[in-house]
Specification:
The chain is α+β, with helices and mostly antiparallel strands. It folds into three domains: about 1-110, no CATH class; about 175-265, Signal transduction histidine kinase, dimerisation/phosphotransfer (DHp) domain (Helix Hairpins, Orthogonal Bundle); about 275-415, Heat Shock Protein 90 (2-Layer Sandwich). The protein is about 55% helix and about 15% strand. The strands form three sheets. It has a five-stranded mixed sheet with strand order 5-7-8-10-9, with helices on one face.
């Protein structure tokens, strides 16, 4: 946008220079031509008066001189003659045949210049207005909407999928915005499918772990029987030993499956810690959710805070707060979401609070466990991984996250260290 503004400023300067230059050139050209016209006519009239007399002069044939007056009182006329002619006055005095005559003239170019100049300037101003209108239209309808869209692919690449795009009235980017929204929805669906897969994986691990108990119990019984010499023949003891070996192999197979399932973790929780400003973090959250919460008729209030420099990954911090706000939208009563910031020692505590159905105290310790969902979920979809991921990210940023229930208010707070 800055580059386009510089181009607009340059075009405005060029247009102004062209208009000024045309006016100056036209003015001096006409002045040079018409400045000689009235002098030529006065000289011609002077000769005609000297030869014929003033009564035979027909001024209709002349363009510049419009009146000739014979001066009766010439006391100071001769002394002022040079002044009248040399200072751009609109009349001149000539001495002809013993009398002084005043020649009133009008520079012919004045009216002509006014008409032509007005037409030329009007045309150039219209042209300039059209050019500027086109530039402003491009800025408002093309560049500004595109400028608003430029961060969307970057946000999508970071996994910020909760905020959709609104079509603008011009619809120049209709298909592009539609495509981005489809991409966002597909990425969100893919994320949900991956979370469901992770849940199934954990369920599989738990199931396999449970299956291990059966062969272990059998081995334990065989061992007790052998220790008490319940099998009196070598043939029977050999059979029991083979059964134990079979159960051991069965356990080894189950353990291998557990190790394989555990090693396949699709969650990318890479964190790049750096320094960032608290105000930038809060402003991004505000931009993300102001319009969305307005459409949902949910009031969002961000309490006053002191800006400072924080340690952590700004993108991951945004992801954590987004998850907190999404939970507040999903499980709150839709009245209000409050974001507040307080300072404790060398840390900033960012809290997202919502009114509505809270969790029982005995469930609070479990909300950050993977695939755990509280008793207040109702019909809301989910995989129980959001707050688990938040806790893992906060740990990698040398911070923490915790939750509290205060009356009818649910409060989730993250702790970030100040730089």
């Amino acid at each position: 946008m800055k580059g386009f503004h510089r181009i607009m400023a340059g075009i405005i300067i060029v247009l102004a220079a062209v208009i000024l230059g045309v006016n100056l050139v036209y003015f001096f050209t006409l002045h040079a031509d018409n400045g000689r016209t009235y002098r030529v006519e006065i000289n011609r009239l002077q000769h005609e008066i000297a030869e014929k007399g003033i009564e035979y002069i027909d001024l209709k044939k002349y363009e510049a001189v419009n009146k000739i007056t014979e001066l009766k009182d010439t006391k100071h006329t001769k002394d002022m003659q040079t002044f009248y002619e040399g200072n751009g006055s609109d009349y001149a005095i000539r001495y002809i045949n013993g009398s002084y005559y005043r020649f009133d003239y009008e520079i012919a170019f004045s009216k002509q210049y006014e008409v032509i100049s007005r037409a030329v300037n009007t045309a150039m101003l219209i042209m300039a207005a059209v050019v500027l209108a086109v530039l402003f239209y491009i800025r408002l309808r093309l560049l500004k909407p595109f400028n608003n869209l430029k961060e969307v692919p970057y946000e999508l690449s970071k996994g910020n999928l909760s905020v959709g795009l609104k079509e603008n009235k011009s619809r120049y980017f209709g298909r592009f915005i539609w495509g981005l929204n489809m991409l966002r929805e597909n990425l969100e669906k893919q994320k949900q499918r991956e979370l469901a897969l992770q849940k199934e994986k954990k369920t599989l691990i738990l199931s396999i772990s449970h299956d291990i108990k059966t062969p272990l119990s059998a081995i334990s019984l065989y061992a007790k029987a052998l220790s008490k010499n319940l099998y009196d023949s070598d043939e029977k003891r050999t059979e029991i030993a083979e059964n134990i070996s079979t159960k051991v192999k069965e356990i080894e197979g189950l353990v291998t499956e557990i190790m394989k399932a555990s090693s396949e973790d699709f969650l990318d929780l890479t964190v790049h810690n750096t320094e960032f400003y608290l105000a930038d973090l809060v402003e991004k959250v505000k931009v993300y959710y102001t319009e969305k919460l307005s459409l949902l008729k949910i009031k969002m209030r961000i309490e006053a805070y002191d800006n400072c420099l924080l340690k952590g990954d700004p993108d991951r911090a945004i992801e954590v707060i987004q998850n907190m706000v999404e939970n507040a939208i999903k499980y709150g009563d839709g009245r209000e979401i409050v974001i507040s910031v307080v300072t404790e020692e060398d840390c900033k505590l960012i809290c997202v609070a919502n009114t509505g159905q809270t969790l029982p105290e005995n469930e609070l310790p479990h909300i950050f466990e993977s695939f755990w969902r509280g008793s207040n979920v109702g019909k809301n979809s989910g995989n129980g991984l959001g707050l688990y991921i938040c806790r893992q990210l906060m740990r990698q940023m040398d911070g923490s996250i915790y939750a509290q229930c205060q009356g009818d208010e649910m409060r989730v707070t993250i702790v970030l260290r100040m730089a």
